[in-house]
Amino acid sequence: MIQEVRATFNQQFSETKHQAVLNELGSYFGIPPGFRVAETPVFLPAYFKQKLIEASNEIVNGFMEKDYLKISLKSIPDEWNTPGFSEHPNFMVLDYGICLDEDGSLKPMLIEAQGFPSVFYFQMSLDRAFRANYDIPAGFSSYFENGNETYFKQLLEETILNGHPKEEVILLELEPQKQTTLVDFIGTEKELGIKTICVSELLKDGKELYYMNGKKKQLITRIYNRVIADDWAQRPDITSAFKFTDEVNVSWAGHPNWFFKVSKFGLPYLDSSYVPKTTILSKLSNIPEDLENYVLKPLFSFSGSGVVFNVLPEDIQNVKEPENYILQKKVNYYPGIQSPDGMVKCELRVMLIWPDKADKPIFTTNLTRLSKGELIGVKFNRNKIWVGGSLSYFAE
């Protein structure tokens, strides 16, 4: 979105370079990414990075405000309320639409918040692949604070392992080999030396959890949680010796309860100019007359699942669990990226890591999604080019 940088990049771009990026990623991970990697990174001005930091600090403070922490306890379903709740989330990701402010400057507007990890290791590798195959201008970085890969790796290791032996730490997921984020699990294994385990592979003996490490029954003392509760709830065929409500002798890198507390549930309680007007459906007094300016969303789903973009009154009336849905004012994305066949809009995910003993979360890197459809996501961008997962570089 810095026009002179964009013009230079587009002039120098070739499909051969993009394929080289994909080849490098495939070589490192051993498999191609399960999602489309966009042809281009995004180039953003320094002032926008500062706005992202300001917005994110306001939003984090809102989620950690004492009254909200109390209110949000009701967001945790009894069947998912996990013992050993931590004082703060280890991971928070904040998704912003890149919009235009009234003065014509770029402004981030919050789309979604998640108390859950993201594809940290993939984004690190994407930065390496972009830099190896594209001419990223000097003075641009994809990182926020202490902006380098070495620090990011140390921070992830500190937060995920937290001093535990690697063999006693697992990445927990549902059928990990079938997830689009498998490349990130592979990256986590390569960098940390931990195993990725499906919930169905867990063994339980009293309060102890185990997994089979080869022929050895291995004790688990810490779980890097990548299980999305909503996904498991929809898969009764996946059984496990363990359920999240069990009292077990493990600590969590990303306690499951934060998935519910830091979520779309909290958006109506946030007071920030970076947050669009949001109402929990059960508290909606009347249906807005300008309903075309709103989006209907389930509280605990990812990747645009269940979102109604062109809302009709009957969509609201037919919701069976209004306490689990929100009505959110639409965010007008700015289509500010020139591609070979038209303009592209994007959404930027700020990725925060909060080690157990840290006073506040630490800004790390970002994930950027490019779109030509109504919403960000694969199903809104089928058969299109210059869309998909990417990375933003900020001018220093």
Question: What does this molecule look like?
Answer:
With 396 residues, this protein is α+β, with helices and mostly antiparallel strands. The protein folds into two domains: 3-276 and 331-395, no CATH class; 277-330, no CATH class. 26% of the residues lie in helices and 25% in strands. It is built from ten helices and 19 strands. The strands form five sheets. Strands 2, 3, 15, 16, 17 and 18 form a six-stranded antiparallel sheet that branches. β10 (222-225), α8 and β11 (251-253) form a beta-alpha-beta unit. α2 (15-29) crosses α5 and α5 (120-133) crosses α7. The longest helix has 18 residues, at 46-63. The protein is globular, with a radius of gyration of 21 Å. The two termini are 15 Å apart.
Strand/helix succession: HHEHHEEHEHEHEEEEEHEHEEHEEEEEE
Q: Which residues form runs of ≥5 with pLDDT under 50?
A: none
Indicate the mean pLDDT: 94
The helix fraction, in percent, is 25-40%
Radius of gyration: 21 Å
Straight-line distance between termini: 15 Å
Count of individual domains: 2
Structural class category: alpha+beta
Q: Quote the beta fraction.
A: 25-35%
According to DSSP, the number of beta strands is 19
Provide a count of the helices.
Answer: 10
Major beta-sheet overview: 6 strands, antiparallel
Envelope shape = globular
